[in-house]
Target: MET25 protein
Amino acid sequence: DDDIFSSAFCENSEKLINVHLFALAAKYYSLSNLGVCTPLEDVLEALKGDSEGATGIKPDEFMNKKKSHEVQVMSELVDNIANYCGIKQVIDIGSGKGYLSSFLSMQYNLKVYGIDSSSSNTNGAHERNRKLKKHWRAYQSRGTENLKSQSLEKANDRPVESEIKCKTISEELLNNANSLQNQDQMIIHDLVPSCSFTEMATPATSTETAADLVTWTQSQETKLSEEVLAILGVLPADAVEDFSSSHFNCGELCEEEKVQRKMTSLKVKARKSSESNLYFPLTSCITAETELSDIITDLEDCMMVGLHTCGDLAANTLRIFTAKPEIKAVCSVGCCYHLLSEQFENQQECHDQVWGFPMCQYLKDKGWCCGRNARMSACLALERVAVGQMLPTESLFYRAVLQVIIEEIYGVTKSDRHVGKTFSKSSSFIDYVRRSLKKLELDDSKLPDSCIMDYYEKYKHRMNELEAFNMLKVVLAPCIEVLILLDRLCYLKEQENIAWSGLVKLFDPVKSPRCYAVIALKNQSC
Model:
């Protein structure tokens, strides 16, 4: 296959001569085609056993569609992992404004510490929790309606009981650095867990069904009560009224009933108090050397999660997971590959530096380097382009011409400053150039409008050429992302304390292009 695909390029000039073959090669080496991913459904089934998923709260009302999709899918998986490992504490790394953290605490009654390096994000998380009090009554009402609806469905249709038997997962690939050095190709099937599923139908008489329905309804009422308490726990003390025993006419009650109701009221208040801080937003910068016990005073057996952890933070999350015995599992979805630090990019000797790429010994031994341009390309969204969400060609053209201007007029080839989202604020190319030069702290007074437009006219006929070039980058993007994600997976495969690790496609890539999660569970003895 490598020989066939290599003919896409000219042997002498190394220029691309067969675009169709290039596209086929890119598809061949994408994650979806390599077969290294574990289906999300298989993971959930293996973790769940016979447990029932939580019902009730939906995040649609206080999140956009993309974030709502991500939070719902990932929170269900995190809850199943937590239940499987028997833990109630979750550490959300790079938690931002707390979308995932708050949902995990409200919906699943998990104790979540959300850690973010930005104090403005942490403050935003506090503010979001304050505003959630506007929604809690709607959740309570919706939960009640769901309970009634599900009770009727339960009476008419008894679900089939399922039994899941998960086979032993092969972990032979990449057991040590020596075997890695001698392997030029990965054995795909060793990366993928094997699960078999059997169904067992349980017949039931009408009497059994009625009895089970009563039991089920009571359990659902308890679940609903717990969900409402979880919501109240996240909200401030003044968010809702306290429906205590003072609302009843105690004069008509006997002394025994008064005592019983008073005790019930005290228990409810105690429970509310214990659950009043299910979600803790914290501000701290996380590195590979971070001691979580210095940040979280009541650190216990827990799992780490990260929803779109930026750059090196995704790699550091995995390193902390492998190093700390308290952390029993990890579920990390990375992003911003262009911000990864690379060990072999600048060929600098920094022995104490912890790099974002490569992580695994296999690629380290080969001195592998992607480079910033390749990592930038890995951030592109092929699936979105495929459904018609085209690249912003005009803004890319503006930026390309600006680069020519600052090199030829100002002699600048590299700068620590960034143009940012200047295009969306600009009324014309001239306006764009002047705004950008000010951001780059370059004097725009020596550049007349006519000179700026001369550059624009000189290159505008090449806009289609630029668009074609960027489309080739989009096609190649999944291949570069494969390299980064497999590097992280192989790093986990090299660790002796990991019981299982895998790549799982969590999200719809059109809604959320960075859709792959790196998941791992430690050995129970660790």
Remarks:
- Residues 6-140+277-386+474-522 form a domain with the Rossmann fold fold (CATH 3.40.50.150).
- The chain has a mean pLDDT of 77.
- The radius of gyration is 28 Å.
